[in-house]
Amino acid sequence: QVQLVESGGGLVQPGGSLRLSCAASGFIFAIYDMSWYRQHPEKENEREFVASITSFGSRTNYTDSVKGRFTISRDNAKNMLYLQMNSLKPEDTAVYYCRRSYFWGKGTLVTVSS
User: Is the pLDDT of residue 39 over 90?
Assistant: First the structure.
């Protein structure tokens, strides 16, 4: 069955960096577009698109608020999706989810605070 397992979240100071990972299994990872979403703590049941990447990584897309700070990437040989997050801001605090169509991981919490 499809499994998406996020990792790499944690507490970081403003201006810091984190790299999130998503381990995918149960499907042919290389043929699917993948994306990252996030849910802010004050917005229950509302997940915000963060970034997406096409199956072979040729095209990426970002929400405006993370452009120039976040980079989505993938390693199809390892069935891994990544999100490099730099210059983090308190408003980036959220649970970050890996998504493939209607499949979601359980999320990893990122807290940006001094």
Answer: yes
